[in-house]
Amino acid sequence: MFGLKKYLIRTNSHYSGFRFRPFFKRNYISAYVCFTDSCRYYGDDLQLKEQINKLFGFGAIRHHKRSYRIGWRYNANKDIIELFEYKYEYGIRFYELVDTMKIGQTKKLTVFSPRYIYFGKLLFPYFGGKYPAPKNILIKLQFC
Questions:
Q1: Range of the domain at 135
Q2: Poorest-confidence range of 44-48, 106-110, 119-123?
Q3: 50-61: per-residue pLDDT in tens?
Q4: C-beta neighbour count of 107 within 10 angstroms
Q5: Residue 96: C-alpha distances to residues 6, 69, 80, 84, 87 (Å)
Q6: Mean pLDDT, the chain, as a whole number?
Q7: The sheet that has 106-123: what strands, in order across it?
Q8: CB neighbours of 18 closer than 8 A, spacing ≥ 6?
Q9: Is the preceding peptide bond at 129 cis, omega within 30 degrees of 0?
Q10: Measuring CA to CA, which residue among 70, 65, 72, 41 is closest to residue 119?
Q11: Given a cut of 60, is residue 3 above it in pLDDT?
Q12: Whether the Cβ atoms of residue 132 and residue 10 lie closer than 8 Å to each other
């Protein structure tokens, strides 16, 4: 797959850059995704190993009230990326492991909402939870 945009999260940061892309009336979004070798990260802290990073999605302007995303984390024991359904509904967070990917693999992923969000924003790669990126993390992603 060609034409994937590069999103870089720098060491000790959470964000892949500031982006604000509003939308009107959406209940799903799809993207092609490729995790690069830089997405392999290691850490002794259990919370770093267990936190779920955010890949992409969409949500209300106040996305911690209502949003739908794909979350991810690196599993060093299996050398794979774990993918999660990651959402906030009425301010309550839910997540569930739904798939895995290999480093370097390109895959089309889709995020669904049970009902439309009439005005909101797209959500882009973010490292964390609590802990920032332990090194530069490069993710390739193209919305479709």
A1: 5-143
A2: 44-48
A3: 899 999 999 999
A4: 16
A5: 26, 11, 16, 5, 9
A6: 93
A7: 5-9, 137-143, 22-35, 106-123, 53-60, 66-75, 80-89, 92-101
A8: none
A9: yes
A10: 65
A11: yes
A12: no
Considering only the C-alpha atoms of the chain, give the largest distance between any 2 of them, rounded to a whole number of Å. Answer: 43
How does pLDDT run across 29-39, given as a tens digit for each residue?
A: 999 999 999 99
pLDDT at 94: 96
Position 5, amino acid = K
Q: Which two tokens stand for residue 12?
A: 């000790």
23 Cα distance to chain centroid: 18
Place of tokens 């870089």: 8
Nearest to 56 by CA among 137, 123, 129: 123
Tell me what pLDDT residue 33 has. 98
Number of domains the chain contains: 1
Query: CA geometry: angle at 58 spanning 80 and 113, to 5°?
Result: 90
Instruction: Supply 103's token pair.
Output: 């480093």
